[in-house]
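So, can you check this one?
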Amino acid sequence: MQVIGGSNPQGISSLSSKRRGVNYLLASLPPNWQSKKNRPPLKVQSVFSVFEKRRDTQSWVSELKDFLASEPAANVQTRNKVDALVNGLLDELYIFAAIYQALTPSWSADELCDLPLVQRYWLDPARALQDQDFAEAWLNTEWDAVVEQDFARWLNNQLGQKVKLLGDVEFRRWAREMRKDSHWQRFISDGLKAMQKKSAGSEV
């Protein structure tokens, strides 16, 4: 608390007069943040049901939905606009996935984890460094293609509430956008290198 104006606070300012010369000061200390601990998506049938509830996800989907619902002309500008919006949504997906990928490895082995295996391979890749069967499945199944299809199916369902005539063409387009995304390709490539390195080390 700081008192200004002495015995005549009215001589300072009208605001000081109203406060009778008393100013309350806030402590100049950094805030004490209580960070929310990230938890694995247990008791969830698909991680996309969690992803769709995020505010940024809803924002991208809403913008894409409104644009397509306006029935834009079928030209290069429209295609580029749609690609940009889908890529923005994919960026949000990778940020979202990184939260789970950073958790303690093998969280997907919990008996309460109901995610499909392909989503476990995607969201808990470090488990493969501890679990040989998991690693072999990671290497020898086309789980990444199934995740791409999951994304495409989910997006079609999200858009289908407002946009008419979404079908196989759009489904393949969304999956293809994820397949060619550089972040996704790098994630698969880095994971493949890690698995191959582990495999080579176990044979020595």
Q: What stands out?
A: The chain has a mean pLDDT of 84. Residues 1-29 form one domain. The radius of gyration is 26 Å.
